[in-house]
Amino acid sequence: MGDSKSLMVSFNSILADKYYKQNYLEYIQNIKIGIAGMGGIGSNVMNALVRSGFCKFEIIDYDIVEYSNLNRQLYFLDDIGKYKVDAIFDIMKKINPMIDVIKHNVMLSSNNIQNYFSDADFIFEAFDKVEYKKMILEHFGNTTKNIILSSGMAGLLNNNEIKIRKINSCHYVVGDEISAVNHENMPYAPRVLACASLMASIALELTYKVFNLTNMDF
Amino acid sequence: MNEKIHINITINGQASNVFNDNTIADIINTYNLQPDSIVIEHNQQIIQKENWSKIVLANNDKLEIVRFVGGG
Fold it and tell me: Are A175 and A152 in contact (CB under 8 A)?
């Protein structure tokens, strides 16, 4: 524990010393991030956000890590068989031991969705099935939460088609909106990680803009 | 019988010309979209599927059609 504490101090102080003004770092450390799904998109979004200094997470996934996940998801061989929410928490603690993660090892449905993300500032939709992707936007879309959705990242081609589309001031879709995952078109690391990185970048861009508007001396 | 007139709306950021009696459901049919794979935002409000045929579009309306494909 002593080691974890000193690692935490050094991680945050590196961020503050080298990358951010202290007050912006404190601001993003209090932003609440919800991630729905801990597969290729969710695990890589969380990786980018933890490394960028975000600390507060609420994550949902019911699944366990399988061998076939390792081609694109952030897990390692010794995570196989673990619940994804447990495995990702253990990996992320190796970057920042002081992250605050609420883990839900459940399958989201229209019957229980109201129990989650009630105080999240950002919701990242990282599910694989269309009906669950839709459910996130339909359920939370008429709130003021920032919602970042993923659509279209399968295959190996047309990599420059992965893009951010702003739907309105708080809703964004990332992907090519065309390439569905199926038996002929599997998901691979480069496009999935490109999509996840662009999604994570929106949280940094929006917090940076809001912070600058409210703290003119930044 | 009322005469149909054209109105200007925006669909996914692109200017578009539709009739003044067109509903959201008409637009979805015109573009041949799969209702089960899309979410509709009409003037920044999410519209549930059962209301698509009830909302008649007006001049300068903004429609966003979010098309989901599997994978994540």
Answer: yes
How does pLDDT run across A149-161, given as a tens digit for each residue? Answer: 999 999 999 999 9
Do A180 and B36 count as a contact with CB atoms less than 8 A apart? Answer: no
Q: Which domains does chain B have, with CATH numbers?
A: 6-67 (3.10.20.30)
| Predicted confidence (pLDDT) per residue in B8-48, tens digit | 999 999 999 999 999 999 999 999 999 999 999 999 999 99
Q: What is the 3-state secondary structure (H, E, C) of chain B?
A: CCCCCEEEEEECCEEEEEECCCEHHHHHHHCCCCHHHEEEEECCEEECHHHCCCCECCCCCEEEEEECCCCC
- How far, in Å, are A5, A76, A184 from residue A134 at the CA level? 40, 30, 23
How does pLDDT run across A109-127, given as a tens digit for each residue? 999 999 999 999 999 999 9
Q: Cα distance from A23 to chain B (closest Cα, Å)?
A: 32
Is the dihedral angle over the CA atoms A44, A49, A52, A56 positive or is it negative? negative
User: What is the 8-class DSSP label of residue A129?
Assistant: S
Residues from chain A contacting residue B37 (CB–CB below 8 Å): 130, 134
Instruction: Report chain B's terminal Cα–Cα distance, integer Å.
Output: 50
How far away is chain A from the Cα of B33, in angstroms, using its nearest Cα?
Answer: 13
The span from the first CA to the last CA of chain A, in angstroms, equals 34
- DSSP H or E run through A118: none
- CATH number, span A2-214: 3.40.50.720
Domain boundaries of chain A, sorted by first residue: 2-214
